[in-house]
Write a structure and sequence with these properties.
Radius of gyration: 20 Å
Number of domains: 2
Largest sheet: 4 strands, antiparallel
Distance between the termini: 11 Å
Shape: elongated
Number of strands: 4
Structural class: alpha+beta
Order of helices and strands: HHHHEHEEHE
Helix content: 25-40%
Number of helices: 6
CATH topology of the largest domain: Alpha-Beta Plaits
Strand order of the largest sheet: 2-3-1-4
CATH superfamily of the largest domain: Lrp/AsnC effector binding domain/regulation of amino acid metabolism (RAM) domain
CATH architecture of the largest domain: 2-Layer Sandwich
Strand content: 15-25%
Mean pLDDT: 96
Low-confidence stretches: none
Length: 151
């Protein structure tokens, strides 16, 4: 991957709806080599997909919660069962395997506090092997980036 590929990636991260012609103009390439580079980035798995950004408040999910999970055991079975359980939960937007006091960090969206309580009681708590759940509620978002830093 060279500087042109990185420029293509950053430009698409800013606006994934650009036509190939618009992208080529912004990058300073002709359309054919630009499209070839985009296709190569897709084929190699560097570009993994395209998505629309949605206002979560207007969608009806204004509550953001970061949930720290500690497991009882770190056996293969316990880890696999936990991760499979998390995969089935639509409210979990992201799940990270962590170092430190928590084993996992979840990014969860909910309609309100009651909705989150039901989520914890009826879904998270039913996954076997969890030793602890610690929730942190987001008051406001200070910064959100969709573009990687330049290298």
């Amino acid at each position: 991957m060279d500087a042109i590929d990185r420029n293509i990636i950053r430009t698409l991260q800013q606006n994934g709806r650009l036509s190939n012609q618009e992208l080529a103009d912004k990058i300073g390439l002709s359309p054919s080599p630009c499209l070839r580079r985009v296709r190569n980035l897709e084929k190699s798995g560097v570009l993994t997909g395209y998505a629309a950004f949605v206002d979560q408040d207007k969608y009806g999910l204004p509550l953001t919660v970061f949930v720290h999970i500690r497991l009882e055991r770190h056996s293969d079975d316990c880890i696999k069962e936990f991760e499979a359980g998390i995969e089935r939960l639509d409210q979990v937007m992201e799940c990270y395997l962590m170092t430190g006091q928590s084993d996992y960090l979840l990014h969860v969206l909910a309609r309100d506090l009651k909705d989150y309580e039901i989520f914890v009681r009826d879904k998270i708590s039913t996954i076997p092997g969890i030793a602890g759940i610690d929730s942190s509620f987001v008051f406001g978002q200070i910064k959100k980036k969709t573009t990687f830093p330049a290298l």
